[in-house]
Amino acid sequence: MDNNRIWVLLGKQASGDITPPELEELQNLLQQDPDAAATRTLIAKIWGIPLAPPEENADSHTRIWEHIAERIPPQRRPFLLRHMAAAAAAAVLLLGWCTWWYVHTGANSNLQQVSSPAAGKSKIVLPDGTQVWLNHNSQLVFHQQQFGRQNREVVLTGEAFFDVTHRAGLPFIIHAGKVNITVLGTTLNVKAYTKDHCVAATLISGKVAVNFQQLRLELKPDEKIIIPAAATTMIRENIRKDSTGQAPELSWLNNRLVFDNDSFEVLSKKMEQWYGVTFHFETSNLKHLHFSGVIDAEPITEALKALQLSRHFTYRISNNEVWISQ
Fold first, then answer.
1. Domain Protein FecR C-terminal spans what residues (predicted)?
2. Containing domain of residue 272, as a range?
3. Is 243 contained in some domain?
């Protein structure tokens, strides 16, 4: 029996994100495994995690994760868990996995995490041959022993480009916040930074099915889907390619940050991810300045100087904090 599947479903039930078919599956699995059912009750008492659906917002997921982290002894909190505490958008699946990990294996975790630095990118090849490029400040988590054998499921926080190897009967599933993307051998870009408050998927080739709450939508090549955090629906768009025929969503793969009439507020969020800094605006009107251009490999000081050529503002940088003023 796949005990990890039980804890994934328990985590989704605890967060209120479980679907009726999954709830029925969970009840059937618990009937076959009395120990898991007893442990569920014990965990609920120890951690105080309600089995009823919590509030539908990111803060509720953060509270659930913090509640778990407080009860893990310091010597058993590996690097993975410290990073996942900040990844509230991925808490639904991680809650199930980490519950199973803590109760059954202690420090011998089978979860594998791959991270990219705050101002850099990483490329990895998963055990099934799937290639993944991680953008700045992004993390990918998967079950080391089960991936490629029992499932091909990963949890993404941040942004990544996937070139997925097709395998009949074992679909590749990306969990990004509350969105589940089933991939059937394809190339796509998925963006799920917590600060963005949305999840976006851009399909380059192949076919994917996107599941969000009770909705399911299949994407075609050159289509993009956006799911805002506070929304109850999905927004489908066609990709707007640039003059070279490339999708702007993939510019980061070529070390290029492309922006087209972006407000300074929107651009600052992109630059935060690009450079690993935090922007502060001393006056709100500066947020509404608009810019178009491309940032390549130049340092942030050179990028800001280039922006000053088209709009008037001043800046100062201190300890990765960027202050924008008149």
1. 256-324
2. 255-325
3. no
Question: Of 203, 238, 273, which one is at a domain's C-terminal end?
Answer: 238
The phi-psi region of residue 187 (left if phi > 0; otherwise alpha if psi is between -120 and 50; otherwise beta) is: beta
Report the distance separating Cα 9 and Cα 1, nearest Å.
Answer: 14
Is the CB of residue 194 less than 8 Å from the CB of residue 88? yes
Task: Report the domain count for the chain.
Answer: 3
The region of weakest confidence among 112-116, 157-161, 254-258 is 254-258
Dihedral (CA of 291, 294, 300, 306) sign: negative
Q: Does the pLDDT of residue 91 top 50, yes or no?
A: no
pLDDT for position 191: 92
Residue 182, token pair as written in the block: 């089933």
Largest CA distance in the chain: 68
The amino acid that residue 252 corresponds to is: W
Q: Residue 315's beta-bridge partner residues?
A: 324
Q: Are residues 168 and 268 in the same domain?
A: no
Torsion on CA atoms 254, 256, 257, 259, rounded to nearest 10: -110
Closest C-alpha to 99, from 5, 194, 220:
5
